[in-house]
Amino acid sequence: MDPSDEPAAADRTSGRTPAELAAKRVLQAFFRDGRLVSIPARQGKRLVVLRELRERCFVEDRDYPEKEVNMRLALVHPDVAALRRYLVDAQLMTRSNGIYRRRPDADG
Length: 108
Prior knowledge:
By secondary structure, the protein is of the alpha+beta class. 52% of the residues lie in helices and 13% in strands.
């Protein structure tokens, strides 16, 4: 077996796709003790982080007033305005009249 094939073999035995393994690495790089240490500049990495934030902070499929969105995001990172904007821009959440909601078609 060629040594360069070893990571591929490990991926097969773990049952995770390369995309899932890459996402796990991104999350490990940007989260410490449950908090987001920085917002990734690269769009692909930022999307991984935003999907994780949506799953952690907005579990229920319901309306979230902006004040509640701010409080939930502040538990993870101080720049709540940027995170709100990124969540909407990435189409992971919708915003209308200060009310946020998970997008049902944003499971990606």
